[in-house]
Amino acid sequence: MSDTLLQVQNLNIVFTGPHENHHAVRNVSFTVGREKLAIVGESGSGKSQTCRALLKLTPKCAHLSAGMLRFGDIDLLHASERQMRAIRGNRISMILQDPKFSLNPLMRVGDQISEAFRLHNKTARRVAKARALAMLESVHIRNAEHVYRLYPHEVSGGMGQRVMIAMMLIPEPDLIIADEPTSALDVTVRQQILSILDEQLSRRNTGLLFITHDLNLVARFCDRVLVMYAGRIVEEIAANRLHLAQHPYTQALLASQPRLHHPVEMLQVPTRDPAWLDGPVYRHGVAL
């Protein structure tokens, strides 16, 4: 993989409680380049916590440690809050799951996009507005002037997600973290949003870290896949070879997916093996 953007080695996140601690992320290591890398797994497997740690958005009740947490030439692990404010939304952007909860309900959507640009670029309001309008048009929003003046509750889910993509892309980041960006959308709109996102990533040569539950989606959309179970990565595989996964957990997730060409009366429910907690990690079909 060329042009590595992010290096993570032995990332651990432990939540401390009054009675016991919870090891939410355990010895996670991976790299991200200018590619589309998916992180998949069940709810609670540590996907979102891993990605939030990259922006140092881990809750205060959690202890974060790592052998390396490096973005380009920046040591994120020891970066100050001032340095992180310059990185968040500027060099690393994050698209969240539901725009209805992510957008400020008291601000027009266009002003929020302009603000994302002006926050990291000292420029006049009219220049920021022109950039925001161009950005809205680039994510295939017709009548951008009209949409610019709308409030979040006045746009549909699909249009709201396009607004979120525009807001995250306008600073021209090197890496985008997308946390379930299409799960609240119907299938047709979901495909439109993914096509727009793919187009924008290719145009800007931007890396993507894509969090999802949908294995069928990542097999078509992403380049590589990391499978997480109980806070650790259990398998890494090329997305177009996902159907050849070797880890029994990945195989169980694949078997639980509904398939039109092979209908069944009841989908399989994954059964978990305690050995997976500390068992081998499969990388491109090889157990390590």
Describe this structure in words.
This protein is α/β, with parallel strands linked by helices and 288 residues long. The protein has 2 domains: 200 residues, P-loop containing nucleotide triphosphate hydrolases (Rossmann fold), CATH 3.40.50; 72 residues, no CATH class. Helix content is 33%, strand content 24%. Strands 7-8-9-3-10-11-12-13 form an 8-stranded mixed sheet, with helices on both faces. Strands 1, 2, 4, 5 and 6 form a 5-stranded antiparallel sheet that branches. A hairpin with a 2-residue loop joins strand 5 and strand 6. Helix 4 runs parallel beside helix 7, helix 5 crosses helix 7 and helix 7 packs parallel to helix 8. It is globular. The protein starts with 5 loop residues before the first strand and ends with a strand. The model has no long low-confidence stretch (mean pLDDT 91).
How would you name the CATH homologous superfamily of the largest domain? P-loop containing nucleotide triphosphate hydrolases
What would you say the CATH architecture of the largest domain is? 3-Layer(aba) Sandwich
Class by helix and strand content? alpha/beta
Beta-strand percentage range: 15-25%
Sheet with most strands: 8 strands, mixed
Could you say how many structural domains there are in total?
2
First-residue to last-residue Cα separation? 20 Å
Order of strands in the sheet with the most strands? 7-8-9-3-10-11-12-13
Number of helices: 10
Based on CA inertia axes, which overall geometry fits?
A: globular
The H/E string reads: EEEHEEEHEHHHHHEHEHEEHEE
Provide the low-confidence segments as ranges.
none
CATH overall fold name of the largest domain:
Rossmann fold
